[in-house]
Amino acid sequence: MYKFLRWLPAIMMMSAIFAFSSIPSTEMPSFDWADMLVKKGGHMTGYALLALAYWRALGWDKKRWWLPVVMAVLFSATDELHQSFVPGRHPSPVDVLVFDSGGAILGVTLAGWFRARKQKGDLPGRP
Asked: Where are the chain's structural domains?
């Protein structure tokens, strides 16, 4: 049961990403001038959180930091394929190769940096 609970955040993130990807383009809000910034920022944030959820589920193994990144990028590729079946949406290799993979790498890098600092005692722990 505990192993399932470790994967629950990743499952929830994958479900949220899938749900957002299922929205037809005609029903998506338009952010006018900030459209690109909001959407691409959402890609990076979502995949940073997904990679962190994967890494947590895998036990924060420092030697295999790359595995949650690969898992997030593979999920991203399948999600872009899924978008090809949603009215008005289309798959974007740029989203996968730049924004989603960049977000996953950024998330794992920042988490690794914070975890290393905390282990050295540079960051305060929980009370």
From this structure: 2-21+35-120
